[in-house]
Automatic annotation (TrEMBL):
Residues 1-23 are annotated as: Disordered. Residues 74-236 form the THAP4-like heme-binding domain. Residues 1-18 have a biased composition (Low complexity). This is Ferric nitrobindin-like protein. It comes from the Bacteria. A motif (GXWXGXG) lies at residues 82-88. InterPro entries: Calycin (IPR012674), Nb(III)_bact/plant (IPR022939), Nitrobindin (IPR045165), THAP4-like_heme-bd (IPR014878). The lineage of its organism: Bacteria, Bacillati, Actinomycetota, Actinomycetes, Mycobacteriales. Pfam families: THAP4_heme-bd.
Amino acid sequence: METNETNTPDTPDTADTADAPERVSLDGNAAVNLAAEQSKNTAHRNIPALDLDEIPLPDDTANLREGPNLHDGLLGLLPLVGVWQGTGQAVDLAEDGNHTEYAFGQQLVISHDGENYLRFDSRIWRIDEDGNSTGADQREIGFWRISLKDEIEVTLTNSRGLVEVLYGEPVNERAWQLTSASTIATETGPSTHGPGKRIYGLMPNNNLGWVDERVAPGSTKDDISFVPYMSGELKRIAG
């Protein structure tokens, strides 16, 4: 197993990057009204329940109106709960430096079971210029936690043979930034996938925008630069 474990305490603030979702101020009443209008189409939808009695635990829910109550410790992440779907752009970070851009579709399920963590489940598929699927790309599953001091901890496992630990904090009540503490690639995983940073944020239209950048090859601790890796804009479809 190949281990690319890197500490990046001096990483620049993700919120300051040019590619981060633009944070445009939105009047509080307008935001509430917009969210209420959008929820008319999503409030009745949820992820399917297993409805099994084999274990004495509640099913996951991606709808705050259904299932167990959200743990009080997760209030700082509450707006993320839901099922999100949309499109984005990505770059294949090839070892020979010949990067290839492609478009993708994504479904992101952020759910909870009443305990003090969120479950993160992302499915991505490649799409052509007409928006038609050309096949599966990657999956990512993990958990988000946040402390009483608003310190976010995220663990993610990627289907390409990657495990990543990220730490971060809220930018405000509608945006969250994360920085890699370590990345581990399996023997068959991508050796060029170094540490990076992400930002997730609710846009003025209440869509979820996100950006993932990776440390550029040749960077050092004293001279870190980043290259775009993936970004997307997702609309809430349930919750």
